[in-house]
Amino acid sequence: MSKTFIFGAMATLTAVFASCGKGGGSEDRSPMLLSSQIEGHTTRADGGVWAGGEQVQVALGSEGGRTFVASVDGTLTPATTIYWQDYSSRLIARAWHPAVGAYIFPVDQSDQAKFQSADFVFAPEVRNVTAGNSRLTFVHCLAKVTAALSAGDGVTADDLAAAVVSFSGYTTVVPNTAAGVVTGSGENDWIASFRTGNTCSVLLAPQTMTGKPFFKVTARGAPQIWEPMAADSVQLRAGYSYDYAVTVEKEGLVVTATGSSAWGSGSSSTVPGGRDTTPATGSTTWGAGSDDTVTGQTKP
After folding, report:
1. How far is CA 216 from CA 213, 257, 292, in A?
2. Phi, psi of 142 (to 5 degrees)
3. What domains are defined for the chain?
4. What would the pLDDT profile of 195-227 be if each residue is shown by its tens digit?
5. What's the whole-model pTM score?
6. What are the start-end ranges of the H helices in 43-131?
């Protein structure tokens, strides 16, 4: 049985203060800073932390997002200084990154920067945020899908190294910073993946992939497409990671959903996500320029 793991390693933001003043004058008020820490593992799509200079939007009370700037040590500093009115002041807060106006879902995620830019994270609303208790926990709003490639019958190591892997998904993705979700719309199209060695990854908006083309491996100019059947029940959910082992053969793909480590360090749950498949029975022209596609079929 396949498993996926929720991204339990979440970025935590805790307000810290330059002074402990509780008085009424501005010189006695505490300027608000945010300190980001990672529980267990990092949350960023590429496994890294803040590069420095990222803009994180924090909504305080009924206000819209205020810009905080991240530094490499995890400190988030408001672009314009903010003070607590007093030490007992209580706020409602939520946060997200990147800013909605700056977020454009990349259909080409073939390098680290593009892959990273697809990662939209959201900290759900927290009430009664005070100077001494102001934790916001970020979660991922997209699903992460990874395919580990290996060479099978009729495929050489050179063929595999030159293979191009794409995943199908929504190409229009819009965040909702009130609900903390992203919504995909329109027709699915192929999204170029980020490859390291023989491992290819992509971030996708949540949707059901059963009965739809899911990923495509093109080697020697011949594209081969895997389409999950009904028994595979591939439901991409926000904040989950889906890992597949893909054996590329001359006559088709052999796909197995594998257990994976979490994108973070949270608890795991069983989520159907693919089964062993036989090589497709359709014909394949194994040569440059072929437009033939082959779809893997689920074993009975």
Report:
1. 8, 16, 12
2. -115, 170
3. 7-23+30-140 (2.60.40), 143-298 (2.60.40.2630)
4. 999 999 999 999 999 999 999 999 988 899 999
5. 0.78
6. 112-117
